[in-house]
Each structure stands twice: as C-alpha cells, then as structure tokens.
Amino acid sequence: MIELKYKYQREVSRLWEILEEACVVERTPDGFSRDSANPFITDKPAGERSAKELSAELIATYPQSRSEHGLLHLLGPHLAKCLMGRADSGHLLFGSDTGRALLEDVYSNRPDLRAATLVLRNFVATPMLLYRGIASASLARGRNLFLVPDGLGSGSVFGPLAPLLQESDPGSL
Known about the structure:
The chain contains 9 helices and 2 strands; from the N terminus they run H-E-E-H-H-H-H-H-H-H-H. By secondary structure, the protein is mostly helical. The chain folds into 3 domains: 1-43, no CATH class; 50-109, no CATH class; 117-172, no CATH class. The chain is elongated and about 70 Å long. The N and C termini lie far apart (53 Å).
C-alpha cells in the first residue's frame, strides 16, 4: 500500500474513479485491480518506446499543445513522489526556467485561459481608464498605487496590464 500525503487523497481518489470509468481498473473489496474484461488491458508490454519518444511523438502530432505536453514531461516522472510528499511540485514547476516558461505559455496562449486573462484584464482596466485622472492625481501627490498579482507568478495576468499602467503614469512602474 502506498502512503499518500493527506492533502492529495481527494485528487488520488478522483484519479482512481477516472480509471474505473475508463474500464482500466475495477473496484474490488481490497481497492482496485486491473479490469480483466477490458480487451485493451493485457500482460503484453506496451512497446519498446521510451516516455521521451512518446512525448516527442505527441508534440509532433499536436504542436498546438506543446506546452501542456512539456508540463507533463516535466512533472510526470515525479508524480508519485509528489503525491507521497517526497517531491515538491511547486519547486519542479517554478524552480527552473523551463517550468516557468511552459507555465507562462500555457496561461498566456491557451484559448480558454487566455480568454479568462482578457476578462480579468478588462475587469481591472475599465475602472483604471474611467478613473485615470483620479489615479494620476493621487500618484502626483506622492501616493503609491499597489497591484498585487495573485496567481502562479508567470506574469500572464499582470503582463497585459502593464501597458495600461504605463499609459496612466509612465513613471509609476
């Protein structure tokens, strides 16, 4: 039995449910086992190709998802250690230029996340544009304007706001 870090119990339970729904495993009184009724689950090896080769093939086949595959390639080999608390996923993601670049690309360019970023940008930008005079006057009197980004630290949300801030008061950044 693998000892999981408590904070990941819910996620791991959901992963088992997904595998069960896909008929990869079946629930037993003792937990889960391979679903012997699934014709695609066999004792034969999956092939001689390495994870690196499979990853390269996925990226070649689906280049629009290059960054997502890159994140899987970066984190996948460490998943079990992260779930057991023996590796820090945050360090794996943010502790390297590669991880940060992949995250920035995902959050800046994936259509669904880009849409959310633009909605947030417009939500923040509209009052800034409406009250530009008030903000400029406040800054001129020596008051500071603080924006505290709350996210993954990739800059994907704050980046689009920077030009608006510079238009308001170029010396404020």
